[in-house]
Design goal:
The structure is a homodimer. By secondary structure, chain A is α/β, with parallel strands linked by helices. Helices cover 42% and strands 17% of the residues of chain A. Chain A has an 11-stranded mixed beta sheet, with helices on both faces. In chain A, β8, α12 and β9 form a beta-alpha-beta unit. Chains A and B meet through α5, α6, β2, α7 and α12 of A and α5, α6, β2, α7 and α12 of B. Chain B binds a DNA duplex through α3 and α5. Chains A, B: It holds the Pfam family LacI.
Chain lengths: 346, 346
DNA sequence: TTGTACGCGTTATCAT
DNA sequence: ATGATAACGCGTACAA
């Protein structure tokens, strides 16, 4: 009576369930905890009453005592770029299956990680944090967050066993890019390409810088000399204009390796619709990521693939392993790339 | 000493700050609450100590007593489809600016809203819930969530003042689609199109059904007869195949209105790369949404625009108004559409 | 297996 | 303006 009216809304609490089911409040708690010992029939009765009362345990209250928020913070500069949105999609699905919710944070468009944002996020006590942003060191992340061990996606030159560095702890997903890049260059070389350009991504992004580094290594090993570096920023529009500028100067480039697929689309459209060049006859183009749009007929892009499912599975493994053993030394997972051949080389 | 070692990690609490700053714990709380009355110099000292100790108020603990989680649940079937990812991006940015974090949930791919998912989400006590999914009634949403008043995006035929319906409360964002659709048909008609097809979206999506309804109205008003309905599901691949089937049958369609831009891309690619037809000479094409990809040169799509910023601002307004007055009757905001003319009609 | 008592970190209330 | 105390909803050590 009075208890029902005094409550702001019809939110049921564990006490309400206990009262109706005529058990103690602790029993209700145990009914919702699979590991607790409680007589099965008692649990069933409690769960039934809970459903009738539309009761759900309060995650916030629970996390206060269990020190587990079941929240995973995901930090991205742009949710709307295809690669990132596809990764967030897959990640959210996988996390949901494991009982975690995705807490999404956006950095500013200049990709400078705001320490205010981190402070803000810290208040939510995420169990784990995945940083896609390229320009925040794991040191800073680890310093600001306390409970969570951040996961950092890195693109090492070589597959090496890194020494366990002193300082703040963080887990790593290493993406070895060499395989796919080597296959891409080999394919273009095999079809007669000689003068290569690299359409870069954001100059602050380690993904782009490491791609360039590996590209140089691979080309040198194949006796192909230095690639021409074309600055860009992962976006379609910049790639489009950069390509036009490149050919206005008239450099006789016959192969363009783009740091990402969206950039490659800009290259293709500039070549075909602005410069009147044919792909792959006049210029060969390869992208990076293999986003869903890359198989669209207007592009039909040959590209270096990062397997999204594999990548997400590795991230989830890292999260679960870390939560199971919070004090373990730095963890890491490794994935590789491979070339997907379509119509822009040949 | 003992208090420092006993703590699992270096997580500082309000008590720690209070001790170091030599004030009461309540003062620390007030220092972080802008509305609280506290001597400015005292607040400054507390904030300084807090920063030294790397202290941030715990949102979970706070929400327990304030009944505000500062969480907004966003439910989508696919994060990775361009329109939705762009909306989530803008929404997250806007919410972050208002002090809310985005809690992301994915429904299953068959778009059937899982009641288990809702129960799961309820545990987080979101202050508001935005449902993009088309096949969950606000009744169900409102029944399962208790504290939050859900926001439902609807596509009414006409701009009418709906009577305040009895039953569960929910707020609405009404998207009036007529203007843009009428402009699109007028433009195509003006350029000589006579036989129209509607490439539908997901058959369960009210957005698609309402677009079809308005399209029929508009065409009838213009003496254009019935459109040919082509079933699809918002995706590129289905639109591509559906378009090929449509012309294999040989129906002499000279204008296609697609339920969304991605579908229109599939139409364009099928027409040009598979059927050898020219756009806009042989067939005129109009899309819906005006996603970022629509201005890409390969598509250069004429499309009905839903202004994303305007839409997100309306959503945020709804959230803030509802939180300021939890017991207000159903709120609603209205936005309109307009045609963006590019190269696929003319 | 069951229940009592306590603590998680914070804010609201009510004194002063 | 300030501080003591009582919640908020839940999990768990401990005793029974």
């Amino acid at each position: 009576m009075s208890e029902a009216t005094s409550r702001a809304r019809n939110r049921a609490t564990a006490d309400d369930v206990a009262r109706v089911a005529e058990v103690s409040r602790v029993a209700v708690s145990r009914a919702f905890n699979p590991h607790a010992s409680i007589k099965p029939e008692k649990r069933d009765r409690i769960l039934k009453v809970a459903q009738e009362l539309n009761y759900t345990p309060d995650v916030a209250a629970r996390s206060l005592v269990t020190r587990r928020s079941h929240l995973v913070g995901v930090i991205v500069p742009d949710v709307c770029s295809p690669w990132e949105s596809q990764e967030i999609d897959a990640l959210t699905t996988a996390l949901q299956a494991e009982g975690f919710a995705t807490l999404l944070f956006k950095t500013r468009t200049d990709r400078s990680m705001d320490s205010q944002l981190l402070t803000y996020m810290k208040g939510y006590n995420p169990d784990s944090v995945i940083a896609f942003t390229e320009n925040v060191g794991p040191e800073i992340l680890g310093q600001i967050l306390d409970r969570a061990v951040p996961i950092y996606v890195s693109y090492p030159h070589e597959e090496t066993i890194e020494p366990i560095a002193p300082g703040p702890r963080f887990d790593r997903l290493d993406v070895i890019q060499r395989d796919g890049i080597d296959q891409a260059i080999a394919l273009m070389q095999g079809f007669g390409a000689r003068r290569f350009a690299y359409l870069a991504g954001d100059p602050h992004a380690s993904a782009s810088l490491e791609r360039e580094y590996v590209l140089r290594q691979v080309m040198a090993a194949r006796g192909l000399g230095e690639p021409l570096i074309v600055p860009s920023d992962f976006t379609y529009d910049t790639a489009y204009r950069a390509t036009i500028d490149l050919f206005r100067i008239g450099d006789g480039v016959d192969a363009i390796f783009a740091a990402n697929d969206v950039g490659a689309f800009g290259v293709l459209d500039a070549l075909r619709h602005e410069l009147g060049l044919k792909v792959p006859q006049d210029v060969k183009v390869v992208g990076f990521d293999d986003i869903a749009q890359s198989h669209w007929k207007s592009y039909d892009l040959t590209t270096v693939r990062i397997d999204l499912d594999e990548r997400v599975r590795a991230l989830v493994r890292l999260i679960l392993r870390r939560l199971k053993n919070p004090d373990a030394p730095a963890l890491s997972e490794t994935i590789r790339t491979k070339l997907v051949v379509r119509g822009t080389v040949g």
